[in-house]
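Q: Structure tokens for this one, please.
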Amino acid sequence: MSIENILEKILSHANEEAEKTLEQAREKADQIRKEAQETGNRILDEAEKKGKEEAELLKSRRTSVAELEVRKMRLGAKQEAISKAFDLALSRISQLEKQEYVPFLVKALKETGVDEAELLMNKRDRDGVGQKVLDAVNDPEKPVRLTLSKDTIQAKGGFVLRRGLVEINSTLETLIDGVKEEVTPEVVEALFGE
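A: Here is the predicted structure, written as tokens:
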């Protein structure tokens, strides 16, 4: 056998071996590619599933927060309406006609149980109805002695009784605040039907 034949055989054998190795490498690469594709698909599916779960959770949280904000806004609006209702009541009482306002103040004065004190009012009430209130309360046959103070108070209406260092605050603001808790359910019912 000649060297050329031997070389040709060796080359042919090497080519066959190279072809086998290449084929094995292709098969291995295909297998790796297939496994990588499966792993990638599985990771994508898991990520998609997790993403959907997180999106649902986030949506649920945001919905809850939005619902809470709506409830807060409704509550705020209701509280504002209730507050306005009490402000309106205060305003209407302070603007009562004299024939209604004087008996109201007289009744409030009598309910204090004080028989001797200085009566302080806002300037408008002192000048407008102060003496009428005193005349109605200071019955000559009874020991009640109230005097009208020259001092005035900052209030929408009502009065403060002062006896020495003790003061009884019966301003309209205080009277309204005193009944707020009790009448708020009725105000809520009237305003909102609740």
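A few notes: Helices lie at 3-94, 98-112, 123-128, 130-137, 172-192. Residues 1-95 form one domain.
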